[in-house]
What does this fold into?
Amino acid sequence: MRATVVTKGEFQVRDLPTPVPGSGQVLIEVTRCGICGSDLHARVHCDELADLASATGYNHFMRSEQSVVLGHEFSGEIVDYGPGCRKRWRIGTPVVALPILRHGREPHLTGLSVAAPGGYAEQVVVQESMTFPVPNGLSAELAALTEPMAVAWHAVRKGRIGKKQTAFVIGCGPIGLAVISMLKAAGVRTVVASDFSPRRRELAARCGADVVVDPGTESPWDAAPHKSRITGATDILNLGFDAMDKFRRIPNLPWWYLFRAAHALNQGPNTPVIFECVGVPGILDQILTAAPPMSRVVVVGVCMQTDQIHPATAINKEIELRFVLGYDPGEFRDTLHMIADGKVDPSPLITGTVGLDGIDTAFATLASPDHHAKILIDPRSPKTAP
It folds into this structure.
């Protein structure tokens, strides 16, 4: 099969042996594969990423001297089964799969491990238990976006945002756009999106953002149509006074149960949920400084450098920080069906397609935010530029 291999940051199209699925694994023909931001990082910073992964307990991340086939956002069709499979679907069935393989008890991230070649190729091996048939005749292009959209769905779920709360999405690259789409699919009524790039702001509006802001000229916090009533520490303290004044008027009311119930049900003032989708040093501290008190900040952007925040600011404002990574198999499956059922439309993210010979050009193009969001790879296309 033909595949694009990266070694020491350089791409090369090669003829590789046809992959052989192991026990419980499936061979699929790749129809489309998305280029992810983590692929851009892995191409030139994989040793850094490998050290970080090793420090957190995963020891199989790719290294720069290895020859690796990238690509973990793919759709395809079943070609063959390995031993020990249940053979749930016919040959030729369109499928998507979680990008993870297991050799024995050792998991490997597909497209980010030399032991699990990815979707920048004509064929890829997946785990049968982690594979899902594509429903409703969904196109290969949209099916390939299941993986990045599942990342966004996981972030939205972790944010535990209510429909009446305001969502702020800071950064409208591919993951920010996916988060906007999933927020609207979840029924969130007000989404404020912020990005310096005019092109990304345009795409944010197409993904459903209700307010789109250039942070160079306007504060996203000021642009929200519904301002938080909690603007400082005094407001937080007065919440307690106001609540107790009301509760004490009712004789024999066990008011402390109401506080316990509010905590158990995650109920409180209608404060915003903020999704940080930039991932550069300094942005998190800027958010903590500017965000309304009692906000929840969901960190989706991956900052690879050492960063600095002022914890006392977050403490005084009782801001909650949540960090997210990936998704679970249920979220992946639900995302696929949300796309197939028309509950979310990720098509605005797709801005170009290339073949295997065009991957190097596509990576160079994606270094600028002014033109493209998500470029897909069609392994059989002759296109060399998106």
